[in-house]
């Protein structure tokens, strides 16, 4: 008999999924784009995630399945080329998220060596090594992955909440506090697109869907888990963004863009704060890589089981689905060839499109799932238009980011179309 998941554990899954490596990876990128309006950009992204969580609540109650998002898309659109393409994109988006976490690990790791006085090693070596280690752990024992994640969630939340406590106190009298005033904000369109670039920091709430069949008293606890975890993380991110922008000059944020959270701890706690946040970032990104490798391989397995990928993907290698190895190898390739901005853009655009489709599935099945029509439609409009706005904003300055993102989208659907046509 499966062990039931209580409300506390369900909320922890959502918070743990969101507060992974995302905030450490994209905070500096958001601040460089939105300047003083960074907290507002995090709020925009969070509200879109909150609206989308309504669709996840209704679909999780109506169709509880360990397949989560994969099953919701198939319920909304049937098993075909379109649903298969979207589900393939979900798998690829997991790989992109893995690349983002590995990139964050590679950016923070040299700081730890600097603290200990050792010579720095190449960024790519850190990224590749941590993925290899996480892959070995996933093959060794899934139980170890779960233990790492449970400990890591506690450690990173304690450290981040401590950062919030010291940070709010440290803002008193800080000369950079005036950077948060509206005259230092970027244009509304830039605030929106900054929020969309860092949307990846919120995507983890969808992991609750995979646990839905095991959640105790689902009618009460599933809504509370989704809404509670998303609202908590919105508040946490907005405060962290405000402390960061209010503690450092914009020039300092630009210099330390890849590890800005550690740099923001310096004004209040000096080198000790810098070291603690660096350690928290390494623990968080490592645990996120571990959990996402497991999640990505399971998504790949679910898609193959639903006949949207060849059944060879359901084969086992060393006791785990072969998708685990493919996910790991692809992640290593992506993190070593793409820049952080390209990875973040592709990841955010991918999840915005996936969430738009889930919202539309909820809209289509509104009567069957006893849900609203207008909330999911609002979620669909917000997610889809935000994705388009993100690509439009990135194109003039970073056209390659847009080409890479659209190329990934096209690849997912073309592969599915080829597979379906060969089956026929």
Describe the secondary-structure layout.
Blueprint: H1 7-18, H2 22-34, H3 38-62, H4 69-77, H5 81-116, H6 123-140, H7 142-170, H8 188-197, H9 207-211, H10 218-247, H11 250-255, H12 260-264, H13 266-305, E1 316-317, E2 320-321, H14 323-337, H15 340-364, H16 374-397, H17 399-423
Antiparallel strand pairs: 1-2
Structure commentary:
By secondary structure, the protein is mainly α. Helix 2 packs antiparallel against helix 8 (188-197), helix 3 runs antiparallel to helix 10 and helix 5 crosses helix 17. It has helices at 7-18, 22-34, 38-62, 69-77, 81-116, 123-140, 142-170, 188-197, 207-211, 218-247, 250-255, 260-264, 266-305, 323-337, 340-364, 374-397, 399-423, and strands at 316-317, 320-321. Strands 1-2 form a two-stranded antiparallel ribbon. It contains 17 helices and two strands. Strand 1 (316-317) and strand 2 form a beta hairpin.
The coarse overall form would be globular
**What structural category arises from helix and sheet content?**
mainly alpha
Oligomer: single chain
- For the secondary structure, the number of strands is 2
Portion of residues within helices:
over 70%
Rg, Cα atoms, Å = 20 Å
Report the major sheet: 2 strands, antiparallel
Distance linking N and C termini: 40 Å
Unreliable parts: none
Strand neighbour order, sheet with most strands: 1-2
- Write down the overall mean pLDDT: 85
Strand content: under 5%
* Total of DSSP H or I helical runs spanning 4+ residues: 17
Q: H/E series, N to C?
A: HHHHHHHHHHHHHEEHHHH
């Amino acid at each position: 008999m499966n062990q039931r998941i209580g409300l506390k554990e369900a909320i922890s899954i959502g918070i743990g999924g969101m507060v992974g490596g995302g905030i450490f990876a994209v905070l500096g990128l958001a601040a460089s784009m939105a300047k003083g309006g960074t907290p507002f950009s995090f709020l925009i992204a969070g509200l879109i995630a909150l609206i989308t969580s309504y669709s996840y609540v209704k679909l999780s109650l109506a169709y509880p399945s360990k397949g989560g998002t994969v099953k919701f898309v198939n319920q909304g659109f049937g098993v075909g080329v379109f649903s298969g393409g979207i589900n393939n994109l979900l798998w690829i988006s997991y790989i992109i998220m893995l690349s983002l976490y590995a990139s964050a690990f590679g950016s923070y790791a040299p700081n730890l060596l600097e603290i200990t006085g050792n010579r720095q090693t190449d960024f790519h070596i850190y990224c590749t090594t941590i993925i290899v280690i996480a892959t070995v752990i996933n093959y060794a024992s899934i139980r170890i992955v779960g233990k790492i994640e449970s400990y890591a969630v506690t450690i990173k939340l304690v450290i981040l909440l401590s950062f919030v406590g010291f940070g709010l106190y440290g803002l008193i009298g800080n000369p950079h506090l005036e950077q948060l005033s509206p005259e230092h904000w970027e244009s509304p369109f830039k605030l929106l697109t900054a929020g969309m670039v860092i949307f990846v920091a919120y995507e983890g709430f969808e992991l609750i869907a995979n646990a839905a069949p095991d959640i105790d008293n689902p009618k009460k606890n599933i809504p509370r888990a989704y809404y509670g975890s998303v609202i908590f993380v919105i508040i946490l991110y907005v405060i962290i963004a405000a402390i960061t922008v209010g503690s450092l000059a914009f020039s300092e944020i630009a210099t330390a863009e890849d590890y800005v959270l550690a740099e923001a701890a310096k004004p209040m706690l000096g080198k000790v704060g810098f070291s603690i946040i660096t350690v928290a970032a390494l623990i968080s990104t490592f645990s996120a890589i571990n959990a996402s490798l497991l999640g990505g391989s399971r998504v790949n397995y679910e898609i193959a089981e639903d006949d949207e990928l060849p059944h060879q993907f359901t084969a086992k290698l060393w006791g785990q689905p072969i998708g685990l190895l493919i996910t790991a190898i692809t992640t290593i390739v992506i993190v070593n060839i793409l820049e952080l901005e390209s990875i973040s853009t592709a990841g955010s655009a991918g999840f915005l499109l996936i969430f738009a489709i889930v919202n539309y599935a909820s809209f289509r099945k509104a009567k069957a799932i006893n849900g609203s029509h207008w909330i999911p439609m609002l979620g669909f409009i917000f997610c889809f238009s935000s994705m388009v706005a993100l690509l439009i904003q990135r194109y003039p300055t970073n056209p390659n980011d847009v080409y890479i993102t659209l190329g990934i989208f096209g690849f997912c659907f073309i592969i599915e179309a080829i597979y379906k046509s060969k089956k026929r």
